Amino acid sequence: MKERIIESAVCPFCACLCDDVVISVDPASNEIKEIRNACAVGTQKFLSTRHADRVQKPRINGKETDYEAAIQKAVEILRTAKKPLIYGLGNSGYDAQRVALEIAKHKRGVYDTSESICHNLLYSELRKGKYPFYYALLDEIRDNANVTIYWGANPIVSHPRHLSRYSVYPLGRYALKGVMDRELITIDVVDSELKKISRWFLRLNPGDDAKLAEIMTRLVNGDTSVLREDDEMDMDTIVKLTDRLKKAFYGVIFVGLGALSSEAATKNVEAIFALVDALNKTGVRYVLFPMKGHFNVMGAVQLLLRETGYPFGLDFSRDRMFEPGKTTVLDVLEEVDAALIVGADPYSSFPKAKAKELCDMPVISIDPFETPTTFNSSVVFPAAITGVEAEGIAYRMDGLPLKLDKILDCEYPSDKQILERIYRALVL
């Protein structure tokens, strides 16, 4: 049997969803022989089928069983629950997310994703309607931007090919020489790898993001009195940086969790929105782009917006189903009495006190890999790896849908298939 070559495979590691990966598969051994164009972590994701921490068998209370018995137990838990939590799904395909949403609706439970923890304040600012949301697809940014700002983000670690595909290095319609026609600006509270390649690197004290954005906004608006009001920041550099922003042909601010999830995040988000608005009012095209993490967290957002008009954190037992701070995952753990976790590890990612609250309820986990959450779950289902062992649809961080291929065969059902069996048994 000849090697099978998959051209333009989509990488299911991060929300960049790089779609230029070339994979060579040996059909006889059902193994990947070569991977081209993927980053190091993307390559590890494709090869993770061999990982020692794969969940091997379904489990009930720590004892191995079969899928049928595990389905029955999961259905029993959900049927008994008055208000279950369905959480995770950032690493699932769009169709799996849809089935999970139907389970939440059927049980009048809570449906949430990591978006309520990572980017909730961004949506809160949008709902106020005070400033327009200047936004663009990554392809437009690649073609046009000659000034790129990473604010509280380090894509070299979180999205390794982001710079080479969308922001700094690629050739564009108005950046024919690629990096030679672009300027990279980094704003952060720590020195990162970006410092070595940035034209401008502005290091802030923690909590000063909003202050910087407010100063720059006033400078953009022609208010130079701010220069006499602050002697703690490097005003000379800020003036030069602001002047460069104003002279850009097209600019983008990629904002990360360093600004969106810090202690002063509410002020940060509002101040950065105001800065982008001020720059656009001078006649310069600027867009604000949040850096999404998990490969299909944007798919979950798109699904909920289409189905309900809200982006995350829905409590179907309430008349006001969307109320951040009341219906989002960290706020409902005292109210829910069971949890269905899909492709997430809240025992590791939640604050310690919140993770402990999961211990007081039965938890059902669907995951290809062992995690602290699977170890502490009442029912565990091993699942195929979406984008490697199962096909699906995922939405790139800018909202573009892409098809994930099935690269290898495997013995495990997909998370979509497991969720469908649970849902069918629930509604009978």
Report what the structure shows.
By secondary structure, the protein is an alpha/beta fold. The model has no long low-confidence stretch (mean pLDDT 95). The radius of gyration is 23 Å and the shape is globular. Helix 3 (94-107) crosses helix 13 (297-307) and helix 3 (94-107) runs parallel beside helix 18. An eight-stranded mixed β-sheet has the order 5-4-16-15-14-6-7-13. It has 18 helices and 18 strands. The protein starts with a strand and ends with a helix.
Q: Domain count, please report it.
A: 2
Which percent range describes the beta-strand content? 15-25%
CATH architecture of the largest domain: 3-Layer(aba) Sandwich
How many beta-strand elements? Answer: 18
Provide the fold topology.
Layout: E1 4-9, E2 21-26, E3 31-36, H1 40-46, E4 59-60, E5 63-64, H2 67-80, E6 84-88, H3 94-107, E7 110-112, H4 115-118, H5 120-128, H6 138-144, E8 147-151, H7 155-158, H8 162-167, E9 183-188, E10 200-203, H9 209-220, H10 235-246, E11 250-255, H11 257-260, H12 265-281, E12 285-290, H13 297-307, E13 314-315, H14 329-332, E14 338-342, H15 346-349, H16 352-358, E15 363-367, H17 372-375, E16 379-382, E17 392-395, E18 401-404, H18 415-427
Parallel strand pairs: 6-7, 6-14, 8-9, 8-11, 9-10, 11-12, 14-15, 15-16
Antiparallel strand pairs: 1-2, 2-3, 4-5, 4-16, 7-13, 17-18
